């Protein structure tokens, strides 16, 4: 039984007494684990992108292993206290869930992800552009090394904004003036870029929620 750190990507209820918690970890990449629980007991523990510590119990008869002794390492209090940032977590968690294959272990990805989440948690203002930055940096973390020439074929009328993001660091990119339509279009373009490189059709339902938030 090994104790590991995990990021919650989502949950799927299994009957009335258990859930499968979809996670990202350094050791197992994206993987679902069975957790025994009541109908509502402890579900706040599994909010999207919470960082947990838990023991992994392997099952020799099944690929679905179990989590026990689960503790909250970081609940991202700064995110949960802000409607806009909390809504972003739905989008970011779904992007990771749909982009990463089950069992996929990418060196350095987990640690990058933790850093990205703690950065969002710490931001007090000027974070509306964060989803765009997250998608760009995720592309790099997956080894695609995004450049203007590489991404431009997937962009439409947002080429100047895309160029600005690629030419600035994190802090200045949060200050790039964008309206909601351009910001959402950039997210759609970058999801297409990720789909092309991962060869996975990435359909993110929560993008519609983000679109409503930043109209």
Explain what the structure shows.
A five-stranded antiparallel sheet has the order 3-2-1-4-5. It starts with a strand and ends with a helix. The protein is globular. The chain folds into two domains: 2-74, Nucleic acid-binding proteins (OB fold (Dihydrolipoamide Acetyltransferase, E2P), Beta Barrel); 77-213, no CATH class. The protein has 215 residues and is of the alpha+beta class. The mean pLDDT is 92. α2 (83-99) packs antiparallel against α9 and α3 runs antiparallel to α4 (130-141). It has helices at residues 77-80, 83-99, 109-122, 130-141, 148-151, 159-166, 170-173, 180-198, 207-213, and strands at 2-14, 18-25, 29-36, 51-57, 66-74.
List keywords for this structure.
2 domains, five-stranded antiparallel beta sheet, alpha+beta, single chain, OB fold (Dihydrolipoamide Acetyltransferase, E2P), 9 helices, 215 residues, globular
């Amino acid at each position: 039984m090994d104790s590991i750190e995990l990021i919650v990507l989502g949950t799927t209820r299994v009957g009335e007494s258990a859930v499968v918690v979809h996670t990202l970890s350094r050791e197992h990449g994206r993987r679902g684990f069975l957790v025994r629980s009541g109908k509502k007991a402890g579900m706040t523990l599994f909010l999207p992108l919470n960082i947990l510590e838990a023991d992994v119990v392997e099952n020799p008869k099944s690929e679905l292993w179990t989590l026990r002794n689960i503790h909250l390492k970081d609940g991202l209090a700064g995110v949960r206290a802000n409607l806009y940032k909390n809504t972003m977590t739905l989008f970011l968690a779904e992007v990771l869930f749909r982009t990463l294959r089950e069992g996929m272990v990418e060196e350095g990805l987990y640690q990058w992800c933790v850093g990205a989440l703690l950065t969002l948690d710490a931001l007090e203002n000027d974070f509306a552009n964060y989803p765009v930055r997250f998608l760009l940096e995720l592309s790099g973390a997956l080894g695609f090394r995004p450049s203007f020439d590489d991404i431009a074929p997937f962009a439409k009328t947002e080429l100047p904004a895309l160029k600005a993001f690629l030419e600035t660091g994190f802090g200045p990119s949060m200050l790039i003036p964008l309206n909601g339509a351009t910001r959402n279009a950039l997210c759609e373009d970058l999801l297409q870029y990720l789909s092309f490189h991962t060869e996975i059709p990435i359909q993110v339902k929560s993008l519609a929620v983000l679109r409503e938030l930043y109209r």
